[in-house]
Amino acid sequence: MDATGATSAERPERRIKSFVKRGGRMGTGQIRALQELAPRYVLPYRADAVPSWSAVFGREAPRVLEIGFGMGDATAKIAAALPHIDFIGCEVHEAGVGALLQRIDEAQLTNLRIVQHDAVEVLAHMIPKASLHGVHLFFPDPWHKKRHHKRRLVQGPFIADLVQYLAPGGYFHAATDWEPYAQQMLEVLSAEPLLENTAEGFAEKPAYRPLTKFEARGLRLGHGVWDLVFRRRA
Fold first, then answer.
1. What share of the chain is helix, strand, coil (3-state, %, to 5)?
2. Structurally, how many domains does the chain consist of?
3. Model confidence over 183-228: pLDDT tens digits?
4. Which domain holds residue 116?
């Protein structure tokens, strides 16, 4: 029984989320992008139907899902650098969605779509199993305090579920600037029997992942960044 008088059986199970709600101001450009570009590039979340992603993009190509793209700078650069791959970006915050829409418009990207919803639920309801070429998770909330570690996204049950959506040979690429979380990620991913590490421990930063301004500043100050690239066994 907890402080509210509810027993463990009565308390709802904590659901894994890929985000934490935060406030933020919207710029006029972001507001305009949401109004004018969202109908073309933002897909509504649906729990009752799996989209035909080939129809959405107008072609059949490898697909990569990004969990929480923030303001979308790296997402847009990766999509521009890899035009043969289609990208699905999941983000709950409107400011980030608006910012990425601006970047899509500026770069005239045709291989990037957005779902403004929790990526955990997008995976469960909108992505066919064994269909993804890759999944990106860059700089997720590390939940620094020990009592909050249970809120970290990369944990055994989530990874066991996520790997079901990777095609054989598909990859999961995570990056973090918080070493304790990097070590936890390495342990969790190494323990998943359907995944194999592409490196001995942490990976070199793949060429397609650009440095963020925050990351570049941290590296100048001597802070570390850890990349992990695991592949689903064939």
1. 35, 20, 45
2. 1
3. 999 999 999 999 999 999 999 999 999 998 778 887 888 889 999 9
4. 43-232
